[in-house]
Structures are given as structure tokens and as C-alpha cells.
Design a protein that fits this description.
Order of helices and strands: HEHEEHEEHEEEEHEH
Protein name: ABC transporter permease
GO molecular function: transmembrane transporter activity
Distance between the termini: 69 Å
Largest sheet: 10 strands, mixed
InterPro entries: MacB_PCD (IPR025857), Macrolide_Exporter_MacB (IPR050250)
Number of domains: 2
Keywords: Membrane, Transmembrane, Transmembrane helix
Strand content: 15-25%
Length: 272
């Protein structure tokens, strides 16, 4: 009887020790899983925070003093947007606007010495130079006196594609678009990508807005870019600019993007 009791106690102790050792391993594994999982969550939170901060910095680089207007149709159907807006009237009506310009967008091939590059063909008003912070490497930008001329300012990337070793594209060269030859009067520096801008300058050829009919039968203003003077209330300028533009439109409304609002939203998101 005493032998059975001893064996039974011995077995119980052995089983208890084995169970404890097994559970101990499981506990260690569970703790390791919790640590790894927590580290992953912290890493994801940090990645999300850093991404939001980086995105906000990109928008800040574009300029918090810049507004972008677009013109959605008020009702469904093929409603053409106007090819001209009185931007001087808008600037006069809204105190604090430093520069305001319009963009008419198209795309197509540009040919130079037998080489072809696909590019954005951008009909512009002269003030777009300052409104978009375009920096020239050579030459000049378009002026009000160029309205009826076949002059163009070319983006850095397009100029590089059209050029070749020993035969770069230079000021005074002519590029062909359809049946027209455009004289290059300006070459842009390589421009940083502007996240909210409707067109990337590096990939574009800028021509006078009045000349867009040479390459496109029905040009339309796609966007208006507004740059404010320093120290302005951007939300006020956005509201007043929308009202001033809307006076000139019947079939289209005015939507204005305020980069500072997007930056503030990203900053709040990065703190959560």
C-alpha cells in the first residue's frame, strides 16, 4: 500500500513538473508574441506618423500661399468650359492676390530634329510664371506681348528628351507641334514635383493661351492658380476668389483647394 502511494505521489510530481515546464515554454512563446506584436504596432504607428509629416512637408514646399481652382460642370452633359476668364477683374475684386494665372491643358507629341517627346501642352497666361514659382534656366517666360506669337517655354525633362549628345535643344530652336513651329524662348530649371498642381512643369511645354487653338480646336480653361501676398488669410482669399470667378460662369461651379487645410489635416492625423 505504501509503495503504491509513493508511486502515485512520484507520478503526480513528475506530471506536475512536466506540465509546468511545458506551460513555461508556452508562456515564454506567448510573451515573445506579445512583444513582437507590440513592436510591430509601434513601428506601424511611427511609419504612419512619419508619412503624414513627410506629406505635409511636401505640401509646404509647394507653398501654403497657393490656391488651385477647378471648374466642375453644374449638371451632367458635355458642357464646355470657357477659354478665357477676366483674371484682372478677379485680382481687383480680391485684396491680397499677388499673382493669378489660368491653364488650358492638352497633350501630344513634340518633334525636334526627328526626335519626338510626348508632353503636356499648356496654354497659359503670363502670370502663371510667378503663380507656379517656375524658375528659368535660360531665356524668359511668356509675356502679354506674345499672345499672337508661336513662342514656347519648355520644361527641363522635355528638353532633355528632345536633345541628343552634340545636338541639345537650345534657346532659339524651333519645335514642331502638328503643323506649327514654336520658337523656344525659355528653358525651365528642373522643378520639384508639386503634388497639388494640375500639371508638372518638367513634363510640359508652355505656350500663350491664345495660341492653343492652333493645336486644339476647343481649348478650355482647366484651372486657375492663385498665389497670395505674404501674411494673407488664405481661407478668406479662397472664398472671395470663388465668388469673383463664379460671376463669370453660368454652367460651371468653382472649387478651390487650400493646401494649408490639407497640411493641418495631415498634422492632426500624425498626432493621433
Amino acid at each position: 500500500m505504501s509503495l503504491r502511494v509513493e508511486q502515485s505521489l512520484s507520478q503526480l510530481l513528475h506530471e506536475a513538473f512536466v506540465s509546468l515546464r511545458t506551460l513555461g515554454k508556452r508562456s515564454v512563446l506567448a510573451l515573445l508574441g506579445i512583444v513582437i506584436g507590440s513592436s510591430s504596432v509601434v513601428a506601424l504607428i511611427n511609419i504612419g506618423h512619419n508619412a503624414a509629416v513627410d506629406a505635409a512637408m511636401i505640401f509646404k514646399d509647394m507653398g501654403t500661399d497657393t490656391l488651385i481652382a477647378q471648374f466642375p460642370a453644374k449638371r451632367s452633359g458635355n458642357l464646355s468650359m470657357r477659354a478665357h476668364l477676366d483674371l484682372d477683374a478677379v485680382r481687383s475684386a480680391v485684396p491680397g492676390i499677388a499673382h493669378i494665372g489660368a491653364l488650358s491643358l492638352f497633350s501630344g507629341p513634340i518633334v525636334f530634329h526627328g526626335r519626338t517627346a510626348n508632353a503636356n501642352l499648356v496654354g497659359t497666361t503670363p502670370a502663371i510664371h510667378e503663380a507656379m514659382r517656375l524658375v528659368l534656366r535660360e531665356g524668359r517666360f511668356l509675356s502679354p506681348f506674345d499672345a499672337n506669337e508661336t513662342y514656347a517655354v519648355i520644361g527641363d525633362q522635355v528638353a532633355q528628351v528632345l536633345g541628343a549628345p552634340g545636338d541639345p535643344l537650345r534657346l532659339g530652336d524651333r519645335v514642331r507641334i502638328h503643323d506649327y513651329l514654336f520658337l523656344i524662348v525659355g528653358i525651365l530649371h528642373n522643378q520639384p514635383r508639386a503634388m497639388l498642381m494640375p500639371v508638372q512643369a518638367n513634363e510640359s511645354l508652355f505656350i500663350p493661351a491664345e495660341g492653343m487653338r492652333r493645336i486644339y480646336a476647343n481649348p478650355q480653361i482647366g484651372n486657375v492658380i492663385i498665389r497670395a501676398a505674404p501674411g494673407q488669410d488664405m481661407e478668406r482669399i479662397a472664398r472671395q476668389t470663388a465668388v469673383a470667378l463664379q460671376r463669370q460662369l453660368t454652367d460651371h461651379s468653382v472649387d478651390i483647394t487650400v493646401p494649408q487645410q490639407m497640411i493641418d489635416g495631415m498634422t492632426r492625423q500624425s498626432r493621433t
